[in-house]
Amino acid sequence: MASANFVQDLTCPVCLEVFTDPVSLECGHNFCGACISQSWERVSGNVSCPQCRQVFAQRNTRPAYTLRNIAEKVKQLRVGAPEQKEEFVCREHDEKLKLFCQEEQEMICLVCGQSAQHKMHNVIPIKEAAQGHKEKLEESLKLLQEQMTQSVWSKQEGEAAIRQLKDQVDGQSCEIRAEFEKMHQFLRERQQQMLAELQREADKILTQLENNLKRTVDKITSLEGVIQDVKVTLEIQDPQGLLKDIQALLKRCELPVSSPGVVSVDLPEDVAEGRLRYLKVWKEMRAVVSPVPERLTLDPDTAQNNLVLSQDLMSVKFVTVKQNCQDHPKRFVLKLNVLSSQGFTCGKHYCEVYVGYKTEWVVGVCRESVNRDRGHTCTPAEGYWVIYVFSNSVKIPDVISHLEMKLRKLGVYLDYERGQVSFYNADNMCHIHTYTDSFTEKLHLILNPCDYETDANSEPLTLLTT
């Protein structure tokens, strides 16, 4: 007869009997084919191994032929052998346990069932109690497996969220380092350029100063020689000796009176005015930063008839008298909208709009295909990603919270590939709101100065350039 350990290796973890038509799961554990089928038929979606709890997206099993052959031989060895069952005997009465007390939740014998302790209790046969508890366990198993599946999904979602955050941080870190490296490299190059230019101008002046100094030293040396010869001649007492070579000496005394000239030590203005040079460098550095504020213009063919654009197409304001504008399919009919002439289908773009002290306005980004003929709600569902301002309160469509702020310049940032439209207080670059969506067509900046009953909202909306 097979040993106890050997038989245990051939026992199904579900029914606790020797395997019948065993199958193997992807994790390597084995079960009776019927047992695993019954276990999984109560689960919808992904299933798991009852033993190790590994989750499977597919319900794949494969027959374990070798294990089945061994299990069949063990069953044949057991045929004819007396079945050995564990005997459960009452410790108090030495009787077989055949009843189950519902109140005490314990097995009892027939004598216990008639005793005063259990006489008033709900006592049922053991088989009936086992069936009832088996059903309860099966229901608990179903709930536990559902919780396990949900927990596994939650774990996977949590791990995915952590990976996403790490990837986002890594990407942003690389972008930050790359952008600052470009600025650092630009500043290093400009620093070397300014230092080299300063040195070149200083060397020019220094060369002039050194040449003048050399000429002055040479003149001093010449004067010292003449003075010495004149002193020696003046000490001669003999008139004939004094007059000897007098003509040559007098000629030497007639050295030209000349000055080496004054050399200005002031550096050229474009080198000396350091602060203005730094301002120039700062302006040049804006070309290194991506994105930079773009110069946009407004498209007069899109402006509603109550809107007037400035001559440079940078400002728009509302007037009460409709303008005699030529009909155009791009023109807005009801809403006081005007679009930018430039459209975007890729890349990163940033622009600024001066809203001044206006009390009402709408600014943002919209799809090129938005309807121009009818009234509409400026929401992302309609193709608008905008913010409103009414009475200095910033209102964001589909967002409950409103922001109270004094906003004079609005920054609008579009990242087409990432599907983001962000708004900033351009004075301090304080973030206001970001829309996240998916863009599939050309987008334009949209301005709406709104109408007005008093002069409080009569100012124009103006595109800013830097």
Question: Any overview of this molecule?
Answer:
With 466 residues, the chain is α+β, with helices and mostly antiparallel strands. It has 9 helices and 21 strands. The protein has helices spanning 4-9, 33-41, 65-78, 110-114, 126-234, 239-243, 246-253, 269-272, 274-285, and strands spanning 22-24, 30-32, 47-48, 55-56, 62-63, 97-101, 106-109, 123-125, 307-309, 315-318, 338-344, 348-354, 360-367, 384-390, 393-395, 403-404, 409-415, 420-425, 430-436, 443-448, 461-464. The strands form 5 sheets. A 7-stranded antiparallel sheet has the order 9-10-21-12-17-18-19, with no helix packed on it. The longest helix is centred in the middle third of the chain and has 109 residues, at 126-234. The chain starts with a helix and ends with a strand.
- Overall strand count: 21
Major β-sheet profile: 7 strands, antiparallel
Order of strands in the sheet with most strands: 9-10-21-12-17-18-19
Structure annotation, total helices: 9
The coarse overall form would be elongated
Compute the average pLDDT. Answer: 84
The helix fraction, in percent, is 25-40%
Q: In what range is the share of β-strand residues?
A: 15-25%
In short:
By secondary structure, this protein is α+β, with helices and mostly antiparallel strands.
Supply database-style keywords:
466 residues; alpha+beta; seven-stranded antiparallel sheet; six-stranded antiparallel sheet; 9 helices
Ordered list of secondary-structure elements with their pairings:
Layout: H1 4-9, E1 22-24, E2 30-32, H2 33-41, E3 47-48, E4 55-56, E5 62-63, H3 65-78, E6 97-101, E7 106-109, H4 110-114, E8 123-125, H5 126-234, H6 239-243, H7 246-253, H8 269-272, H9 274-285, E9 307-309, E10 315-318, E11 338-344, E12 348-354, E13 360-367, E14 384-390, E15 393-395, E16 403-404, E17 409-415, E18 420-425, E19 430-436, E20 443-448, E21 461-464
Antiparallel strand pairs: 1-2, 1-5, 3-4, 6-7, 6-8, 9-10, 10-21, 11-20, 12-17, 12-21, 13-14, 13-20, 14-15, 15-16, 17-18, 18-19
